Amino acid sequence: MSTSRGPRLRILMEPRHGATYAQILTLARATEDAGFDAFFRSDHLMGVDPNDATYRPTDCWTTLAGLARDTSRVRLGALVGAATFRSPGILANIVASVDEMSGGRVELGLGTGWYEREHAAFGVPFPPVRERFDRLEEQLEIITGLWRTEPGGDSGFSFTGKHFGIDGNRTPPRTAQSPHPPVIIGGSGPRRTPAIAARFADEFNGALGGDLRERFGVFDAACEAIGRDPATARHSAVLPVACGRSQSEVDRRAAVIGSEFIREHAAIGTPGLVTERLGELAEAGADTVYFHIYDIDDLDHIAVLAGDVLPHAGLPGTVGGRTA
């Protein structure tokens, strides 16, 4: 597990029209070369517009496995995976495999899943919201329980829940990181999301919209309610960006952002404006920010953020946007 507690800037890829692995790899390598801390991708099989026939889906963890071998430094993960897509025992093994393949650079972001049309299009059951939260909580019990279980014990790991069960697993998946890869949980819900995150998350993500400071405060209170020191968890935020050195660059990148809701909360403008927004997020309590990128082929966007924002973001160990 990463031991650094300094502020972090990361890239989150959610291409508007999907992508091939070659495109994903090119952006991940550009992210790594530029000096960003991590490259994350979304876990979706359909774009914002369900009628967009040009959208090209890829499986999140299959591509992360490829990146584990095709990159060398940058951390990798999903923000956030849909708990509805994979059974917990299988997901625990998938993530552990990718963690080993990457030399211990993987992080697991997991949420309830929200895109009902996407589930219908791929034949994935989509339970009501309360049940999805129940399933998420059981999945995290199983995943972290398996990861913490020593192999070869007398009884192994067992779990009996309403939706999932594990019977005496004496050969649990082995992760490269100890005790296991960081777990990221986030969302805007005022009750169950922070309560679940307080139990399981190494990082709480405040999602888009609303009062970020208030959400972090609710999460911290949930930690204190179970006797956990809130300082043991990171606070992160997502910042959609359309950054350019000229107005034409800004306009071109802003046009790719998929929805008005995202555009409303994006940093659209010069590197100076983006840097100011980072300062505001830091004041609200964020120590980790994910730059949300929508045009997967726009490598110059990464270069602008690395060259004109990273050096002014207060990140330790970076010089001119590259790792020192």
UniProtKB/TrEMBL annotation:
Pfam families, alphabetized: Bac_luciferase
Keywords assigned: Flavoprotein, FMN, Monooxygenase, Oxidoreductase
GO molecular function: alkanesulfonate monooxygenase activity
Transmembrane segments: none
Domain Luciferase-like: start-end pairs: 15-254
Entry's Gene Ontology BP terms: alkanesulfonate catabolic process
Name of this protein: LLM class F420-dependent oxidoreductase
Organism (species): Prauserella muralis
